[in-house]
Task: inverse folding
């Protein structure tokens, strides 16, 4: 379960000017498990964390509340790990909305994401009309995904970010984002337990 529990539209840091407010808006997983997706805006910069589906629903009902935002304003989309509730609406968001920003995940997450989502499409028991995307959409989305190493610092449109090991699953990351000197750590799912193949967060 994600560490964010803010209600939609709640300001985290107040100010007299709206662009000076750090606003965090859960588009899913705010008070539920599933469709993890958190919208954050500050100083005219916008970051989206995760892009999952709700496992209890199908079709459009499984998506995060994308209608609450303008996807074209999102500068950077950061995916913490490959689980469906954190990444399975990504092909839809990349291929069927106005999003034109950049998307990042770790190498391992990208490799497993492709396999997991291809399997998700094959085993989904929904009508063709209710399918959110197909194999071609997944392949096209792969071309748009960029990779980031742990502790590597990148900058996009004035947004600096880097990631730490989250434990949980292979490739899982916690993202630190710095906008104009204000830093926010988005953990996604993480584990403090050592495993035979994973370090603790």
Result:
């Amino acid at each position: 379960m994600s560490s964010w529990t803010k209600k939609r539209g709640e300001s985290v840091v107040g100010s007299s000017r709206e662009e000076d407010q750090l606003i965090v808006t859960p588009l899913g997983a705010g008070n539920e498990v599933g469709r993890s997706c958190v919208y954050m805006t500050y100083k005219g910069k916008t970051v989206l964390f995760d892009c999952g589906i709700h496992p209890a629903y199908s079709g459009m009902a499984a998506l995060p509340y994308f209608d609450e935002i303008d996807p074209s304003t999102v500068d950077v989309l950061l995916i913490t790990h490959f689980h469906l509730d954190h990444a399975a609406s990504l092909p839809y968001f990349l291929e069927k909305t106005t999003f034109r920003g950049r998307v990042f995940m770790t190498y391992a997450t990208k490799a497993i994401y492709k396999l997991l989502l291809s399997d998700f499409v094959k085993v989904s028991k929904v009508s063709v009309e209710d399918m959110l995307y197909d194999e071609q959409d997944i392949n096209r989305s792969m071309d748009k995904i960029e990779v980031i190493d742990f502790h590597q610092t990148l900058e996009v449109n004035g947004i600096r970010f880097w990631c730490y090991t989250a434990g949980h699953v292979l490739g899982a990351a916690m993202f630190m984002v710095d906008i104009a000197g204000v830093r926010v750590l988005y953990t996604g799912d993480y584990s403090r337990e050592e495993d035979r193949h994973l370090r603790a967060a």
Summary: Helices lie at 84-87, 90-96, 107-123, 135-144. Residues 1-9 have pLDDT under 50 and may be disordered. The first helix runs from residue 84 to 87. The chain has one domain: 11-186.
